[in-house]
Amino acid sequence: MLMTRSMSTPPAPRWKRTLDQAWRLTRPSLGLQPPDPADELESLRALCHELVADLPESQRHVIGVVLLHARGRQDILHLRTQLFDAISHQFGERVARERLKRLDAALL
Question: What is this structure's pTM?
Fold first, then answer.
């Protein structure tokens, strides 16, 4: 009689399981369900609109079109450079860095 075993993946190493448990204890939000991607994307879009609210309308329009077509966090991350350029040309690099700190915190 032939015994067949199904291919199963080995469990994660003990150190990795322990590390995961420690992360869940220190950051309870990691143990809960992840945020809804659609809600997160909308909040990132709203934040980007806030960052460029006082730019000239032509620049806001271009950034708004790009934001409208963004499908995820990665698209917003790629928009970061354009945001920095637009803000720094209008108000200077220091202001652009200060404003984009908020976006960087939201993307983490």
Answer: 0.64
